[in-house]
Amino acid sequence: MNGLVQGSTYALLGIGLTLIFGIMKVVNMAHGELYTLGAYVAYGFVAVLGLNYFGSVLVAAVAGLAIGALIEWMLLRRRNLAAMDEVMLIMIGVMIVLQNAELLLWGGVAKAVPSPFTQEPVVFGAVSVSPIRLFVLGTALVLLVAFYLLIERSRLGLAMRATFQDKDAAKIVGVNVSRIYTLTFALGSCLAAVAGALLAPVFVVNPTMGDLASLKAFAIVILGGLGNLLGATLGGFALALIEEFGAGYISTAYRDAIGFLVILIVMIVRPQGLFTSKERVG
Amino acid sequence: MIFAVAALVLAALPLWWPDPYVLSVVASAGIFIIAAISLNLLLGYTGQLSLGHVAFFGVGAYTTALLSLGFDVALPGLDEPWVVAPQPVWLAFASAIAVAGLFGWMIGQLAFRVRGAYFVIVTISFAQVMRMVAINWVDLTEGPMALNNIPPLTFWLPGAGVVELVSKASTYWLVLAVALLSYLLVAALVHSRVGRAMIALRENETLARSMGIPVTHYLRIAAVGAAAIAGAAGGLYAHTVRIIDPDVFMFMFTITMVIMVIVGGKGTLSGPVIGGLLFGLLPELLRGWLAPEVQWMLYGTLMVVILVFMPRGIVPALVRRRTRPARPVQSSTPAVAKEVA
């Protein structure tokens, strides 16, 4: 059950990352920092200002959208996404700046965000689960479905998929590619921030949590195949379950190492990802 | 010529400025410059962005520390624990270079099957796995408790026998010597047939392949060379700091090396040295009047600004200004490829 909760937020992280990569060919090294940002928004709202937790998730979403759009508009647009390596390095620069800004603002001490629910576990037959985890799982699933519908059914989703397939052809048929880029980056960032805000009451919040989150997100995306949304969702759940079982049956100490071992193994055996036959969005 | 003068001036530094603090700062900058020089071989000359370079640095540090301290560790499948007595420091240091090179070869086998983002992620994962092992294999590495009392490096002097390099000046000279050696080694490699093959595959891998250049072979050479030199840097680090913990595998160390190479100018011999001096000495200069977080924000910003406005780094920008009009860069590729094949 913990695996499912963790998996749902992993999926949110992974989808944001894979969307940005798939459409823009940008490897967003700063993804984890947006996740951290979301967590801190929740902390600021609930623990410092004493406001509503649910409101904080919404604010985190808006903040993620805004910062994502800002980064794309200020940095990525200028570079015209020339070389993937250079863009990756630019994102590392952004990561360093964001992470240290977070350290400066909130200090290195981990913070706890109080849960808005009772501690009383909800019991389903043999499994019991705390209400906050249930809420995280539910919200994440709703978001995943909504996002899937957005990509598959809406005009915006159609434009995104067109850009993914061939950005020049998309331009010719009248898609405003640079607007799609901004929206894509903003949406991906938004999902990461929401994941951070959702998980804030479950774990403690600290400024370096983004490092591990970034790396996990990469593991997920690799599992699913870069640029594959469904793959990222499945990859998120798969990684969380592998970690849970690995921690349970092998060693808790190596829990985080398992993720990276999985990446290495998948890379050797099946570099195109487990759930991909060919690259596509959706 | 410039190189010889610079080397002489640097070698004479302890004579005209014998402040031990200054020397230790320059020496620790030097260790990172060595690492940056090694990263430049991969990143600058073959064009492979490795973000796990700290793995070789850490492997070098742990190898030499463990061998010079000695260790015994229980291995699965063995009844007796594996016992290694403390080894002479020079042997441990040489092993560090060899073991790091071996890891470079292994990672090369693994990672060069993929390119671009995938390659980057494999290298990051590898460094992370190494860090987790260093944290969790407490029997061998002492985990977060760190390996203490690592002996200083020794040097054999005619007449004086084996001398421990404990003074700041001697450590400085040693770091300088290794740095010069790595620089010359990389320079020689880059200017050889091997180096031309690397540049050819960086510029256009498909073309290089079609000209009959065995791409993977040259990538492997670059990986082993880069890893071995990074292992030497890690070994120097272990013996000068005298204590190491799993933090030697920190992602931030890789970032430091990458920033040095990028800002200085990747694919130029002096780039990592210039960038390394800048980012090795800047923290000391800024210390006291800027919080470390603000420093890092400054570095991050500088890195982004340089990448956006001066994507080739400081050295090429300076060189181009001196030798205007700039010659076309693109057209040289096929000639290079032809020359190698």
UniProtKB/TrEMBL annotation, chain A:
Sequence intervals crossing the membrane: 6-27, 88-110, 130-151, 180-205, 217-241, 253-270
Cellular localisation: Cell membrane
Coiled-coil features, chain-numbered ranges: none
Topological relation to the membrane, as annotated: Multi-pass membrane protein
Annotated keywords: Amino-acid transport, Cell membrane, Membrane, Transmembrane, Transmembrane helix, Transport
A Pfam family reported for this protein in Swiss-Prot or TrEMBL: BPD_transp_2
Main localisation: membrane
Family: Belongs to the binding-protein-dependent transport system permease family. LivHM subfamily.
Protein name per UniProt: Branched-chain amino acid ABC transporter permease
Taxonomic source organism: Comamonas endophytica
Top-level taxonomy: Bacteria, Pseudomonadati, Pseudomonadota, Betaproteobacteria, Burkholderiales
TrEMBL record, chain B:
Subcellular location: Cell membrane
Transmembrane segments: 21-42, 54-75, 87-105, 117-138, 171-190, 218-236, 248-265, 272-290, 296-319
Tree of life domain: Bacteria
Chief localization: membrane
InterPro entries per record: ABC_transp_permease, LivM-like
Recorded topology in the membrane: Multi-pass membrane protein
Keywords linked to the UniProt accession: Cell membrane, Membrane, Transmembrane, Transmembrane helix
Protein name: Branched-chain amino acid ABC transporter permease
Organism annotation: Comamonas endophytica
